[in-house]
Design goal:
Distance between the termini: 20 Å
Helix content: 40-55%
Shape: globular
Order of helices and strands: EHEHHHEHEHHEHH
Largest sheet: 5 strands, parallel
Strand content: 5-15%
Number of helices: 9
Strand order of the largest sheet: 2-3-1-4-5
Structural class: alpha/beta
Number of strands: 5
Length: 213
């Protein structure tokens, strides 16, 4: 725990895959003052051995109980790293997809929130309609092989995509939310910057989540 006024700012972006989190994180890094370190799912999984992937990106549905025992430790290590960076005065933006839809609840988000107790954390829900997510998935998958389920005429929204949409915003406690179907990544970053200028609400979303409220 820290109450150091010199601690770096932390922004956690939470949303489904293809909701636009990574683009917002890049906009924050490009536009905000000072160094902003990205410690999101892509950067963390790049350090994770292939046999343990998708690591912290394990999708809802309890599909890989063989990996679930490891996932809480990966998240704990990631958030401890976030705390270390912030404690040294570095700003951190992390684009993640928190959910608790494993074969059994793991309570990862509350544990992560407690690990950042005393740090300035803005928890941002990144919303995007599932229709827009499907459009982005099709554009991304065009002309390349993919392991992910694709839409068909019979199944316009694959079940894994729907599970992400249903589970990633539970419990839905945020300091603010943005919708990337109506705002560009830059506009989302500007809205986040404006909220930081106004100040993080009290109690913050992470304080409420850590306390189980």
């Amino acid at each position: 725990m820290t109450n150091d006024s010199h601690a770096g700012q932390i922004i956690i972006l939470n949303g489904a895959p293809r909701s636009g989190k990574s683009s917002i994180a890049r906009a924050i890094q490009d536009e905000f003052e000072g160094p902003w370190i990205n410690l999101g799912v892509d950067s963390y999984n790049a350090m994770t051995p292939n046999r343990y992937l998708p690591g912290i990106g394990l999708r809802p549905g309890g599909e890989r109980p063989d990996l679930e025992e490891l996932v809480p430790f990966l998240y704990a290590a990631l958030y401890e790293s976030v705390a270390i960076h912030a404690g040294l005065g570095l700003n951190v933006v992390a684009d993640l997809g928190h959910h608790d839809s494993y074969s059994q609840p793991l309570g990862i988000l509350a544990d992560c929130a407690r690990r950042l107790e005393g740090y300035p954390v803005l928890f941002v829900g990144v919303r995007c309609p599932i229709e827009t997510i499907m459009q982005r998935r099709e554009i991304r998958q065009e002309g390349r092989e993919t392991l992910y389920a694709r839409a068909t005429e019979e199944v316009p929204v694959p079940e894994p995509v729907r599970r992400w949409q249903d589970e990633v915003h539970r419990p839905g406690i945020y300091d603010m939310e943005v919708d990337t179907s109506v705002l560009t990544a830059l506009e989302c970053a500007e809205a986040i910057g404006h909220q930081l200028d106004l100040g993080i609400p009290t109690p913050s979303a992470f304080e409420r989540i850590a306390g189980g409220r």
